């Protein structure tokens, strides 16, 4: 039994390996890039390399390297693929008539086409082989502008400028200030980042359930800002008129400046909209928005005034009222 079981398991393992390796082998065998480079390698060894020995290596050998170009080091295609930039220069020199120089033996038309055509086909194949590869990605810090805008977005404080003491970002050779190789992180730069972080942390206001950021940096300023925000919120629903003057030992000053509830506006709104509110065709929120009132207070006032009003409008038996003044028809009509 054991040999039979073992052979059965071995067949299963072999089947799985074939399923895995079969497609992989097919993909490798069918890779057009590999075939293309193999053809380029044969052409380089058979035609291109001999032309270079005859017309190029006298000037561009490892010993001379005229124009800082060494073509002797490219013995085979693998060497060529490690020095692609040099072949970009070869194309430029061929197109400009600089290779071979005018006082040297010249390539025939066919030979020039052969050399130029091979280089072009190789560069095209190399570009396809590396398509989609951006090259090495350099780990970099944020640029000064990026850092400033990020901090402003995170804190919500547009006046913050944490990078004002940072050195100017370099543009490197490409002309861009966000090039990774130009955004170095020196020890002095780390110190400036730490100082900027301390400044930003100074705007943090600790709360019972977390924290927030403020434009100010002192507790007294935070308190004043909170009070100002509260006043601003209530100011949109209150009336600034009606303050009283008080004479305290000869010192006269106003009291109750603002903060008075314009009750007449609320009562008039309930009077004008009572039919719609009773029938439900308008909501308290819609009426409050229309008249510029606080929806919560308007809702509470309407609830107190509408005792019995809904039954009267819907035709239901009206609840007994101990005081006729509690009926809104009596209260609201008396305000006319």
Q: Report the strand count.
A: 4
Tell me the β content: 5-15%
So what's the overall shape? elongated
Poorly predicted tracts of residues: 1-7, 13-30, 313-330
Q: What distance separates the N and C termini?
A: 107 Å
Query: How helical, in percent, are the residues?
Result: 40-55%
Order of helices and strands: HHHHHHHEEHEEHHHHHH
| Largest sheet descriptor | 2 strands, antiparallel
Q: Within the largest sheet, what's the order of strands?
A: 1-2
Whole-number mean pLDDT: 79
The radius of gyration computed from the alpha-carbon positions, rounded to a whole number of angstroms, is: 43 Å
Helix-strand makeup class: mainly alpha
Count of discrete alpha- or pi-helical segments spanning 4 or more residues: 14
Keywords:
single chain; 336 residues; mainly alpha; two-stranded antiparallel sheet; 14 helices; 54% helix; 5% strand; elongated; disordered N terminus
């Amino acid at each position: 039994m054991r040999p039979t079981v073992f052979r059965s398991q071995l067949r299963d393992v072999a089947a799985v390996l074939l399923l895995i390796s079969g497609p992989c082998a097919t993909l490798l065998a069918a890779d057009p890039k590999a075939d293309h480079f193999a053809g380029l390698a044969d052409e380089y060894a058979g035609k291109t390399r001999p032309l270079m020995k005859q017309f190029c290596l006298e000037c561009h050998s490892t010993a001379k390297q005229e124009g800082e170009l060494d073509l002797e080091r490219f013995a085979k295609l693998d060497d060529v693929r490690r020095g692609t930039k040099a072949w970009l220069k070869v194309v430029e020199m061929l197109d400009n008539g600089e290779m071979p120089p005018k006082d040297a033996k010249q390539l025939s038309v066919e030979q020039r086409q052969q050399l130029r055509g091979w280089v072009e086909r190789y560069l095209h194949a190399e570009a396809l082989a590396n398509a989609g590869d951006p090259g090495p990605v350099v780990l970099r810090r944020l640029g000064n502008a990026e850092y400033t805008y990020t901090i402003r977005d995170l804190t919500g404080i547009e006046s913050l400028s944490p990078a004002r003491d940072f050195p100017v970002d370099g543009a490197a050779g490409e002309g861009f200030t966000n090039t990774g190789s130009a955004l170095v992180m020196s020890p002095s730069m780390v110190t400036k980042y730490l100082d900027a972080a301390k400044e930003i942390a100074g705007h943090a206001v600790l709360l019972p359930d977390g924290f927030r950021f403020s434009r100010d940096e002192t507790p007294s300023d935070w308190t004043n800002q909170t009070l100002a925000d509260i006043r601003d919120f209530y100011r949109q629903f209150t009336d600034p008129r009606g303050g009283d003057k008080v004479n305290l030992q000869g010192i006269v000053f106003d009291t109750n400046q603002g903060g008075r509830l314009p009750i007449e506006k609320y009562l008039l709104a309930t009077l004008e909209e009572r039919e719609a509110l009773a029938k439900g065709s308008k909501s308290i929120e819609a009426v409050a928005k229309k008249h510029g009132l606080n929806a919560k207070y308007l809702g509470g006032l309407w609830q107190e005034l509408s005792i019995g009003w809904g039954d009267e409008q819907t035709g239901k038996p009206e609840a007994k009222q101990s005081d006729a003044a509690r009926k809104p028809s009596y209260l609201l009509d008396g305000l006319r």
